User: Fold Purple acid phosphatase from Lupinus albus.
Amino acid sequence: MKMGYSSFVAIALLMSVVVVCNGGKTSTYVRNLIEKPVDMPLDSDAFAIPPGYNAPQQVHITQGDLVGQAMIISWVTVDEPGSNQVIYWSDSSLQNFTAEGEVFTYTYYNYTSGFIHHTTITNLEFDTTYYYEVGIGNTTRQFWFITPPEVGLDVPYTFGIIGDLGQTFDSNTTLTHYQNSNGTALLYVGDLSYADDYPYHDNVRWDTWGRFTERSAAYQPWIWTAGNHEIDFDLQIGETQPFKPFSTRYHTPYEASQSTEPFYYSIKRGPAHVIVLATYSAFGKAKYVNLHDT
Ligand SMILES: *[C@@H]1O[C@H](CO)[C@@H](O)[C@H](O)[C@H]1NC(C)=O
Ligand SMILES: *[C@@H]1O[C@H](CO)[C@@H](O)[C@H](O)[C@H]1NC(C)=O
Ligand SMILES: *[C@@H]1O[C@H](CO)[C@@H](O)[C@H](O)[C@H]1NC(C)=O
Ligand SMILES: *[C@@H]1O[C@H](CO)[C@@H](O)[C@H](O)[C@H]1NC(C)=O
Ligand SMILES: *[C@@H]1O[C@H](CO)[C@@H](O)[C@H](O)[C@H]1NC(C)=O
Assistant:
């Protein structure tokens, strides 16, 4: 919320987590609030472009179903569309699995995005380490993540919460601080790149943000919701489709909870039932009843 008034986003942790949750005080870290935060320059190491022809960049994952047995794998290629395939396997699997996804592009004023891939991998086992590879056919890159325990078990599970991250030097410190915690999934409460602070909402700053956050977001799910800095509606430059950059780059598993709105959905993860509701989203009683029943 570094830019004054910001979006208000409600995330409710329901069910047993309310009862058993005892996070305690996990840190004495306080961000520097005295100097005005400065964005990291475009050539900063935090934004380094991975080497190799058409190498996947901005890799990030988010839960792909209601209970944690699927993952949406997303990445960007810039030289050519390349493959939408994800190859994945677990510690114990004797074979590799392949999933196919889709590729998207968008334009924003005079910016043209890279090739934005989203591929959902399914039928994952709980509590298991999975490795995955993207960039098939060109430069490949490998990452890993750990699936959550089965829903409903009374097991400890640690969520992180970050919002308003931006891409300042302080953002970098904040992310490092989070990486040194034991968070295994991140609830992202809106306001991602702050690209809209730049003239013409310079969408290059969406790409730098994607590369910056990859070092965490490729290895554990970041559960997304939209804030006011994602609106990117600007009549003066003819951009009239709200949330275009965010929606194209960050998918959510809203259909798995029978929602019809990408910014209103729920996921279950270990002991928690997380309800994501952005104030910009339509939501209805009928859908609420639906969620309540599951
Ligand atoms: C699975 O894919 C990885 C990465 O391409 C490869 O190193 C490994 O040998 C493959 N395993 C099997 C069983 O094919
Ligand atoms: C987009 O337009 C702005 C303003 O004219 C200019 O500064 C910028 O370099 C342009 N960017 C591209 C990618 O053409
Ligand atoms: C990059 O990968 C795609 C998809 O596998 C393939 O069709 C294309 O020929 C590759 N490009 C090069 C230059 O190898
Ligand atoms: C960002 O943080 C990483 C990890 O601590 C560090 O290696 C890198 O040098 C930092 N970059 C900047 C521009 O602060
Ligand atoms: C993370 O977990 C380890 C092992 O339980 C513990 O030693 C460490 O203090 C924890 N770190 C934080 C920041 O909570």
